[in-house]
Amino acid sequence: MKTLKYLTSLALVCLFISCAEDNNDLSFIEEVVAPSNITAQFQITQDNSGLVTITPNAEGAVSYNITPGDGSDVVSVLQGENFDNIYTEGTYTVQIEATGITGLKTIASQDLTVSFKAPENLEISADIDASNPFIINVSATADFATSYLVYFDTANADEEPTALASGETVSFEYPSVGDYTIRVVALSGGAETSEVTQDVSITSPTELPIDFEAFDANTFQGFGGASNAVIDNPDTNGNLSSKVGQIIKGAGETWAGNVITLSSPIDFSTKKAMTMDVWSPRAGGKMILKIENLDDGNIFYENEVTLTGNSAWEQATFDLSGIDTSNTYQKVVVFFDFGTMGDGSADWTFYIDNIKQDVIAAGPSVTPLTFETPYALSSFDGGDISVVANPDTNGNASNTVLQMVKNAGQVWAGSKITIDEPFVLGNSETITVKVWSPRAGLNVLMKFEDAVPWPDVSATAEITATTTVANAWEELTFTFPSIDTSIDWFNMVLIMDNGTEGDGSENFTIYLDDFSTTPTLDFEPNFELSSFDGGAISVIANPDTNGNPSSMVVEMVKNAGQVWAGSKITVQEPFALASGSRVTAKVWSPRAGLNLLMKFEDAVPWPDVSATAEITATTTVANAWEELTFDFPAVDAAIEWYNLVLIMDNGTEGDGSANYTIYIDDIDIN
């Protein structure tokens, strides 16, 4: 006899004696019912010996009397025990009498088939689960079978089989879409087996949003001479998706187009716009988005936009605010240059991605937040420059200012501000700048350069001004007596304490604002940056343009402080947020598995602030850009959401290192 779990009558007796000593009320015993749900597990040794291990089980049972059904004696076992019996080939009725703690008994019978020949007439059922398209439910029947082994993916050589009893069903969830082969082995009472295989296709339901990463291509059809396919993204600049939809308009009909048939109708009750990332080979083309009824093509709504991208990704927005919501719509139809014949060439090859619903903003949208500026920032030989929240509004009310740091490096380490159009400089020019310095006597050098690379660059004279106060704002003046006005001056160069090596400390950190140049440089974006409890945020030059061509991005650092240290982006007009909104952001992380929490807040100060749910997305790559998605299922549309809060690895204290430094760009609400 094999014991799986040891229970003794002595333990039960001691338990009731102890209870009786503590509480003489034993009326609860009257509520105990007889055992129920009696079953027996039959494990037949696959050696033609007829050895069967019988393990009884029931709810509320403490012991069992088992009649093997082959004429042998009744065997008594405790809960958790089993026993062995040797049978000849045949079918037996095993009787199980279960006894409860009060002596109440229940009797049940279960058939046992012991067969030494291979099972016959093996049939299996493999059905997609109605609640999850990635789950398959498998059952099997066969003559002379005692049980079954199920392999859900024959391509996986390391798969351990799942045991399946007669009359039962086993389930498995596949990790991704694809074609799989299921193998079911029927076991006999001996060494003989039978088996069958069945192919299954796991497909994802076609519903919005569509990103083509796990997409059923059968729902994507061309007509009138247009063709389509799901392919690897040919241009990851501006769109980091690995898969996109390709559309080629060939010679055929001028109305050739492509249709995606969804698994269920689109809900236009609140979101009456759609957006789509589009790659067009040329600017100026027309694109029509048509939303159709599944069965009646005469029930539709469409909107046309003009594409501006030239061999580049752009986001096209289609206003569907006039759609009749009393009808149902389940087809998304796309036309490029409707009325013009295509020829199937590269000039008629388009790519689409990220098809989503959106809301029609009541006023100007504050998203996407791109952090691009009318200037570019760069540094050299140990310098560092960024746009940060003003650390001292006493004497300068600006929300954001320029921060310059001189780290260890060359004694001439500095930074550069580059603009798209040249600075307007006269023969003699006086430039004023607000400067906050940690000490009096700090020297700031300024000069202008053209756009020619070093060493052939042309430069004005180097003018130095010196601070006179510490830890306060003051205005410094730089007077240029003679400037060559025939040169286009695109760059302003700034060097702190030229001739002295910096150390990156507060002693070599200054803030600058309100340059009186033409154009004026005041560093005031359409948003405000702030941080709390150890967080830090700034706008800096993009450190990695591979996968994100933006010149400026947000840098977030989590320093030592609270485990919830983070940062906040405050906008001048509320975010257009609604229930079901999906927020996307490009994120560069030093490691996979980094968690980024996002929530929105109103403008009421803490502790009376109102906030949305906190949604967390996790990075999957290291040292590269990727797009993270944050889904907000329920949002109070009556609240005006002015603040976007971001927390890196909430619950873990940061250390300010590269491991706790990320970059963010292109925050958008869909």
Can you walk me through this structure?
The structure is a single chain. 2% of the residues lie in helices and 47% in strands. It is elongated, with a radius of gyration of 36 Å. The chain has a 10-stranded antiparallel beta sheet with strand order 33-30-35-28-27-37-38-45-40-43, with no helix packed on it. A 5-stranded antiparallel beta sheet has the order 16-19-24-21-22, with no helix packed on it. By secondary structure, it is mainly β. It contains 1 helix and 45 strands.
Summarize the entry for a quick read:
This protein is mainly beta. The protein is 2% helix and 47% strand.
Q: How many strands, what sense, and barrel or not for the largest sheet?
A: 10 strands, antiparallel
How large a portion of the residues is in β-strands, by DSSP E? over 45%
The span between the termini is: 65 Å
**Broad structural category:** mainly beta
Instruction: Enumerate the strands of the largest sheet in spatial order, edge to edge or round the barrel.
Output: 33-30-35-28-27-37-38-45-40-43
Mean pLDDT: 88
Helical content stands at under 10%
Rounded Rg: 36 Å
Shape: elongated
Count of β-strands: 45
Low-confidence stretches: 1-23
List its salient traits.
single chain; 670 residues; mainly beta; five-stranded antiparallel β-sheet; 1 helix; 45 strands
Question: In terms of topology, how is this protein built?
Answer:
Elements: E1 2-3, H1 9-22, E2 36-44, E3 51-59, E4 63-67, E5 75-78, E6 81-86, E7 90-99, E8 105-114, E9 120-128, E10 135-143, E11 147-151, E12 162-165, E13 170-173, E14 178-187, E15 193-202, E16 220-223, E17 226-232, E18 243-249, E19 257-261, E20 273-280, E21 286-292, E22 300-306, E23 312-319, E24 331-336, E25 349-358, E26 375-380, E27 383-389, E28 400-406, E29 414-423, E30 429-437, E31 443-449, E32 463-466, E33 472-480, E34 489-496, E35 509-513, E36 527-532, E37 535-541, E38 552-558, E39 566-571, E40 581-589, E41 595-601, E42 615-618, E43 624-632, E44 643-648, E45 661-669
Antiparallel strand pairs: 1-6, 2-3, 3-6, 4-5, 4-7, 7-8, 9-10, 10-13, 11-12, 11-14, 14-15, 16-19, 17-18, 18-25, 19-24, 20-23, 20-25, 21-22, 21-24, 26-29, 27-28, 27-37, 28-35, 29-34, 30-33, 30-35, 31-32, 31-34, 36-39, 37-38, 38-45, 39-44, 40-43, 40-45, 41-42, 41-44
